[in-house]
Write a structure and sequence with these properties.
It is built from 18 helices and no strands. The chain has 520 residues and is mainly α. The protein has a domain of 230 residues. Helix 1 packs across helix 8.
């Protein structure tokens, strides 16, 4: 089962990388079609939709995966199917109820939550997705309980592809009617993608569901009340966690446009600025996270194995390695965003003005990536509640910062960026503190931080010089920007090698980890 777990984790990781990459390309084209105002409209309503999904599913898909795995391990395949049927019917009923509440509650949300009435159409367009996602999550939970991750990864990739194609197509058709109608394309794209995922996983279920697993006779029929008790015992804490996390995202989506409007600008302008921020600035900031999350994921099983062996020194070594790799990848990203923010936002999305907030977010980039890695480490250490607690604690400071700083006319959306940076710093610092308390980790600051910082500073100087020189030679901003980034990254790598920031042992150690994971 260990080998199947590693294979399944790899399949999910590759699927996630594909979805993130195609999602980023989708964001580029969608912004050019519906413009930042349309992106802002969609991002105002989407957190509400996610909240309704959290309430409708109530953590049941997680319970399906856990309980199906338990029943299959006991050899009780009929019991696994019974759990699945009970959960499927429960999800069908709850999603129908919340769909009705979603529809009839829309006018109240429009009156008290959404500052822009144009968001109403995008909000209504998401209604069919509640039932679709809820039912699809039941099938995915079932396959995950069987330790079969390929159906989830495959259907998520098909879902993302369908979302991209349909969303761009519908947005393009509706654009002549106005930006509020074009934004419907983003919402309907979500629904079409989710419907594609549901249909594909139903087909996989009908063709590949297990029928001949060994079954041990003599399992009594579990009372229905006992089954529901097991299901909701697992689902309840998951639901509370997700409600809290989603509420924090919802708070940002509601508060940022509201505070922008307090700076004596129109609703349309506030929506456009908000759309630039979430659709351009934060999208670019999160892009390097594809690398850091992947690296952290590759190291987590090694950390868990070392913990299982009660080898605390090995745990500390692997924690330090994960953190150092994150810093090595995060610092050059921050330098690029800081120095080339306007060029990147203008070349990729067509809105160089979004670079003002990206420059500020760049200071929080390394902490964001550290937050992601340290969260994974704490989960590998079996302390999943700690990063969640830290996130909630830091979010109070972030939301306070959003309310105060965004409302300052001299800052506006740059104040929002500063508030997010505060949140990233606090969360990363609290996570690192927990890791140090749990493992006794003492980082080698010279190798983990000082040498990478020196290399990053040299990289920054090289980028400034090469960008100016290349633009003077080519008079092409895209060529100068791409060339400066490539030359800057090369300089960063060379400086790290010369300073001893990385060496041959790093490559050999990483190969050993991969070998260890493959053999385990």
């Amino acid at each position: 089962m260990r080998q199947s777990f590693i294979y399944g984790a790899l399949v999910l990781l590759l699927g996630s990388l594909f979805n993130r990459a195609i999602g980023f390309v989708y964001q580029i084209f969608m912004i050019r079609i519906i413009r930042p105002e349309g992106i802002g409209l969609f991002n105002m309503v989407y957190p509400v939709y996610v909240m309704v999904l959290v309430l409708a599913t109530a953590g049941i898909p997680v319970a399906i995966a856990k309980l199906v795995a338990e029943e299959v391990a006991r050899g009780n395949l009929p019991g696994a199917y019974r759990i699945f049927r009970i959960c499927f019917i429960t999800l069908a009923v709850s999603s129908t109820i919340f769909t009705i509440l979603y529809f009839f509650g829309a006018p109240l949300l429009l009156k008290y939550v959404f500052i822009n009435p144009k968001a109403y159409y995008s909000f209504l367009s998401l209604i069919p997705g509640i039932i679709i996602v809820s039912l699809c999550s039941a099938f995915r939970g079932f396959f995950q309980g069987l330790q079969q991750m390929t159906p989830t990864a495959l259907t998520q990739s098909l879902e993302q592809s369908a979302r991209v194609i349909s969303g761009l197509f519908i947005a393009g058709i509706l654009l002549p009617r106005g930006v509020e109608y074009a934004a419907i394309g983003a919402s309907l794209g979500v629904v079409v993608g989710e419907l594609t995922g549901l249909i594909s996983i139903i087909i996989i279920y009908l063709r590949n569901r297990p029928r001949n697993l060994p079954v041990t006779a003599g399992f009594p029929l579990e009372p229905l009340t006992s089954s529901f008790g097991r299901i909701f015992h697992l689902a309840f804490p998951v639901t509370l966690t997700r409600i809290t996390s989603t509420s924090l995202i919802w708070a940002d989506a509601a508060l940022i446009p509201l505070r922008l409007q307090s700076n004596v600008i129109s609703i349309s302008e506030a929506t456009e600025i908000y759309g630039q921020f979430v659709g351009i600035s934060t999208s670019l900031l999160f892009t390097p996270g594809i690398i850091t999350v992947s690296l952290a994921t590759a190291l987590l099983p090694a950390i868990s194995d070392a913990l299982a062996l009660h080898n605390l020194s090995l745990v500390r070594a692997r924690c330090e390695q994960a953190i150092r790799i994150t810093i090595l990848a995060g610092l050059p990203s921050a330098v690029i965003f800081l120095l080339l923010a306007e060029d990147l936002c203008g070349i990729i999305f067509g809105y160089p003005e979004a670079g003002a907030s990206l420059k500020i977010l760049a200071f929080g980039g390394p902490f964001l990536y550290l937050m992601q890695t340290t969260t994974g480490i704490l989960q590998g250490l079996g302390k999943a509640s700690r990063p969640f607690r830290n996130l909630v604690f830091a979010s109070f400071f972030k939301i306070t910062g959003i309310y105060y700083l965004t409302g300052l006319p001299q800052l506006g959306i740059r104040g929002t960026a500063a508030a997010l940076v505060i949140g990233y710093i606090l969360t990363a610092w609290l996570n690192l503190t927990d890791i140090r308390q749990l493992t006794g980790l003492n980082l080698n600051l010279n190798k983990c931080l000082l040498k990478p910082l020196v290399a990053a500073a040299g990289m920054g100087s090289f980028i400034l010089f090469s960008h100016h020189y290349l633009y003077a030679c080519t008079r092409s901003a895209p060529l100068a920007t791409v060339g400066a980034i490539l030359l800057g990254l090369t300089a960063y790598l060379v400086l790290l090698i010369l300073s001893g920031g990385i060496g041959g042992n790093d490559l050999r150690r990483f190969k050993m980890i991969i070998y260890f994971k493959t053999r385990s």
